[in-house]
Specification:
ten-stranded mixed beta sheet; alpha/beta; Isopropylmalate Dehydrogenase; 2 domains; binds nicotinamide-adenine-dinucleotide; 12 helices
C-alpha cells in the first residue's frame, strides 16, 4: 500500500528529537511490515532553527509545512533561548506555523487508559474508560480581538483591554469540525460558552444551534455554561463525547480535562485548518508537553504523546483509521503489560527508557499483525 503522502517532521528542541526518534521507528515499521510508505522530510523549528538560521522557523520551512499533507512537531523551547526578545523566542516558530497554516481547530483528546487509572487524581470509577475530545477554537476570540492594550488614564491609573470577538464563519467552521468528529465517535456534541453574561456567547450558542439544525440533526447537541462545564469535567467527565468551545474557555478546559488522565507524557493533539479544493486539510500534530529541559538528553522521556499524535495524523489527515487503531492498541497493550517510563511509574516501580518504550511498542505492533 503506497500512501504517497508528504509528511513534514519537525523534532524541535529538548526531548522533541528524543520522542520523535521513536515515531520515526514506527513510521519505518509501517514501511517494512505494512508496505505503507510516506514521503518524509525533516526540518528545524524552535531553538534548533534559531541556532542554524537565526530565526525560530524559516520561510522555506513554513512553505514546506503548507505543502505537506501533515506536519508532526516534537516540542520547542529551552533555557538556552530564554533570554531572547519575545519576538525571537523558539515558541514564535510554532505560533507562526499555526498562524500561517490558519489552524483554527485544536483537538485535544482526553483518554484514560485502564492501566493508568490510578495515575489520575480522581477516583478510578470516575475516570475509568474516559474518552472525550475537546475542540478548541484556536485563532479567534479574546487572545486576538482588538482593541487590546494597556493605557494610562488622565488620573494616572491604568486600564487594560482585551476584546472577545467572534463572527458567524469563525463559530460555524469550528462547530463543523466538532459535529464531523462526533459522527465518527458517539454522536454527541456539547457546546460551551457563557451566553448568560456575554454577547459573544449568545452568538456562539445561536450559530452552533443553527448549523446543527441545518446540517447535523443526527448529532445530539447540548449547550453548557463554561463554569458548569469546568465542574462537570471533574464531577462526571464520562457524560461528554465532543466538547466544542472558544479559545479562552478551550485553553482552560482542555488542560483540566488533560489532567484527568494522568501524565503530560501521554497527551497528543491536532490542530486543523480548512480543506483545500482537493479535500486536503492543513494540519499540525504535536504532543501537548513541552521540551522538558529538566530531563532532556537523558533518554528517559515518554514518547507515547508523540506516538499518539502520529496516530491522530494517520486517522485525521491520512484517512488510515485501521493503522491508527493499530498504534493506539499497541500503546494500550504496552501499558497493560506494565511497561512504564519514569513519568508513569509508581514509586518503586521498574522504569524503561525512551528507546525501550519504543522497543515495546514495536514488539506489540509485530504481535498484533501476527495475531
Ligand atoms: P514541559 O511540558 O516541557 O514539562 C513539564 C514537566 O513535565 C517537566 O517536569 C517534564 O520533565 C515533564 N514532561 C513533559 N513531557 C514529558 C514526557 N514526554 N515524558 C516525561 N516527562 C515529561 O513544560 P515546561 O517545563 O513548562 O516548559 C519547558 C519548555 O518547553 C519551555 O521552554 C516552554 O516554553 C516549552 N513548551 C513548549 C511547548 C510546545 O512545544 N508546544 C509546550 C509547552 C512548553
Amino acid at each position: 500500500m503506497a500512501a504517497n503522502k508528504k509528511l513534514l517532521i519537525l523534532p524541535g528542541d529538548g526531548i522533541g528529537p528524543e520522542v520523535m526518534a521513536e515515531v520515526g521507528r514506527v513510521i519505518d515499521w509501517f514501511g517494512s511490515t505494512r508496505a505503507l510508505r510516506f514521503e518524509v522530510e525533516e526540518d528545524l523549528v524552535g531553538g534548533a532553527a534559531i541556532d542554524a538560521h537565526g530565526v525560530p522557523v524559516t520561510d522555506a520551512t513554513v512553505a514546506k509545512a503548507m505543502a505537506a499533507d501533515a506536519v508532526l512537531l516534537g516540542a520547542v523551547g529551552g533555557p538556552k533561548w530564554d533570554d531572547l526578545p519575545f519576538e525571537c523566542k523558539p515558541e514564535r516558530g510554532l505560533l507562526r506555523l499555526r498562524k500561517d497554516m490558519a489552524l483554527y481547530a485544536n483537538l485535544r483528546p482526553a483518554i484514560c487508559f485502564a492501566a493508568l487509572v490510578s495515575a489520575s487524581t480522581l477516583k478510578p470509577e470516575v475516570v475509568a474508560g474516559l474518552d472525550i475530545m475537546i475542540v478548541r477554537e484556536l485563532t479567534g476570540g479574546v487572545y486576538f480581538g482588538t482593541p487590546r492594550g494597556i493605557e494610562t488614564l488622565p488620573d494616572g491609573t491604568r486600564r487594560a483591554i482585551n476584546t472577545q470577538v467572534y463572527t458567524t464563519p469563525e463559530i460555524r467552521r469550528v462547530a463543523r469540525v466538532a459535529f464531523e468528529l462526533a459522527r465518527k465517535r458517539r454522536g454527541k456534541v456539547c457546546s460551551v460558552e457563557k451566553a448568560n453574561v456575554m454577547e459573544s456567547g449568545v452568538l456562539w450558542r445561536e450559530e452552533v444551534q443553527a448549523l446543527h439544525d441545518a446540517e447535523y440533526p443526527d448529532v445530539a447537541l447540548s449547550h453548557m455554561y463554561a463554569d458548569n462545564c469546568a465542574m462537570q469535567l471533574v464531577r462526571n467527565p464520562k457524560q461528554f463525547d465532543v466538547i466544542v468551545t472558544d479559545n479562552l474557555f478551550g485553553d482552560l478546559l482542555s488542560d483540566e480535562a488533560a489532567m484527568l488522565t494522568g501524565s503530560l507524557g501521554m497527551l497528543p493533539s491536532a490542530s486543523l485548518g480548512d480543506a483545500d479544493e482537493t479535500g486536503r486539510r492543513r494540519a499540525l500534530y504535536e504532543p501537548v508537553h513541552g521540551s522538558a529541559p529538566d530531563i532532556a538528553g537523558q533518554g528517559i522521556a515518554n514518547p507515547i504523546a508523540c506516538v499518539l499524535s502520529f496516530a491522530m495524523m494517520l486517522r485525521y489527515s491520512l484517512d488510515l483509521g485501521a493503522e491508527a487503531d493499530l498504534v493506539e492498541n499497541a500503546v494500550r497493550a504496552v501499558l497493560d503489560a506494565g511497561v512504564r517510563t519514569a513519568d508513569l511509574a509508581a514509586p518503586g516501580e521498574k522504569t524503561v527508557s525512551t528507546r525501550e518504550m519504543g522497543d515495546a511498542l514495536l514488539a506489540e505492533l509485530d504481535r498484533q499483525v501476527r495475531a
